[in-house]
Amino acid sequence: MTYQPRILPALLFFCLLLIGGPSAFAQDDPAPETPAEAPVEAGAVAPGEGDYKKGKALWNANVCGSCHNKNMKDKATGPALGGVEERWSAEPREHLYRWIQQSQALIASGESARAQAVWSEWSPTIMSNYTGLTGSDIEHLLAFIDGQYTGNIPGGGGGDGGTQITAVAEKQDNTWLFVILGGALLLLSLILARITSNMQYMVATKEGGSPARRTLMEILTSKGMIAFVLFALVVLGGYTTVNHAIELGRQQDYQPEQPIKFSHVTHAGLNQIECQYCHDGARRSKHSVIPAVNTCMNCHRAIKKGSQYGTAEITKIYAAIGYDPIEDAYIKDYENYSNEEAKEIYKKWIAQEYIADEGDLDEMENVIEDQWDGVVAALTNDMTGDDKVAGPVEWVRIHNLPDHAYFNHAQHVTVGNLKCQNCHGPVEEMELVYQYSPLSMGWCVNCHRETDVQFDNEYYKAYEKYHEEMKDGERKSVTVEDIGGLNCQRCHY
């Protein structure tokens, strides 16, 4: 039995269905839009009737976490806020409002004994004024503080006021569709080859010849087929090699575990610490730099317990730099301390704080040992021979451009006035930082083509022609491409 030419339309129609189906190669469905929050209702809020979510928004908007610990139980730059309503209950509610709005004015008035007591304990540290907060705003804030302190949070979520986790639509994997399409095309090519062979046989027979019919194996092992397969393998191998070469060292979504569980959600998000406070090299040098432990100590000399992990992670900072949190002093000649000597200092610290938290005494020894083991694991490295906890923290690098690519942070941050999020994504929403952008050449080139230069910058005074064109209305904007941003030597000199 031979294949007839009339089956070709059916086969072609079948392949067109596979190729042209509207959903076969559809991109990821867009995430549903988040409905806007309802506006805050007008009118005063009764005492004790504040809204936790609105209070959390006010807490973040007013950066209250820069001075107060978000667990509301531990002191920081300012006092622990848990139980604040009970401490002020002996006085009119208005006094608490006035204290939050303008504390120094309430102290000066002499009307509040509680205000005088707080000032006596915390002077000369002055609380910031929040005159823009209404009584209703303060009630919302108090509801948030109480929820954090007691763990009684509407809708659950734990007692740390943790970041709301947004569901991310799972990317659709269309690999199997490509496999089916490839198989269908291969089958079609075999069928067409067989049809061609049969037609040639029929023509030769009709002309009076006696040709030998080629078998399927002879077709597959013919010189033409072998040449085609070799050509396809060379193209596929070259494509794969080049792709892997240009992706070397810049794996998008790379998210390694770090020796210390540093939460950017807590620091950059909740407490709104500016990126360049820690990565201060970004504004003045090629590299953004990893902050030294000294930078961490600017805050953690006062904030000695984390809101999520207690002493477990902050003790790693103390052990690295040699700070005794009990004595509130740096340890002299700490670099010469053995691990056993350091262990005694920090085990005592962990035990003291564990008892202060009213932990189970039967479990205390296990907690202390587990935390100290975590310190040793984070600050030592068997591969490099580093067996002492004293010394710098070995952070795991995430972003790593190849040596032949030049990138200058200061040029983009200071001159270009770009935000860190332009390249690194919403870091303030990342509990564990990952490589957000592909950092490929094409990605950089597209950014230079699309990004408008902030031309009022002093750096661009030399471009007189463009300034005149913008002044005359001949040009609306200047992109990075216009000022040579696509010249090869900019990045590969």
Summarize the structure.
By secondary structure, the protein is mostly helical.
How would you characterize this protein structure?
Helix 2 (52-61) packs across helix 6. The chain is mostly helical and 493 residues long. Helix content is 47%, strand content 1%. A two-stranded antiparallel sheet has the order 1-2.
- What's the arrangement of strands in the largest beta sheet? 1-2
Topology as a string of helices (H) and strands (E): HHHHHHHHHHHHHEEHHHHHHH
Q: Count every helix, treating DSSP H or I runs of 4 or more residues as helices.
A: 20
Low-pLDDT windows of residues: 1-42, 157-170
Draw up the topology in text.
Layout: H1 8-20, H2 52-61, H3 84-87, H4 93-109, H5 113-122, H6 135-150, H7 175-206, H8 216-220, H9 223-246, H10 264-270, H11 275-278, H12 293-300, H13 311-321, E1 323-324, E2 329-330, H14 339-356, H15 361-379, H16 409-415, H17 421-424, H18 441-450, H19 464-471, H20 488-491
Antiparallel strand pairs: 1-2
Q: What labels would you give this structure?
A:
single chain; two-stranded antiparallel sheet; about 45% helix; elongated; disordered N terminus; about 500 residues
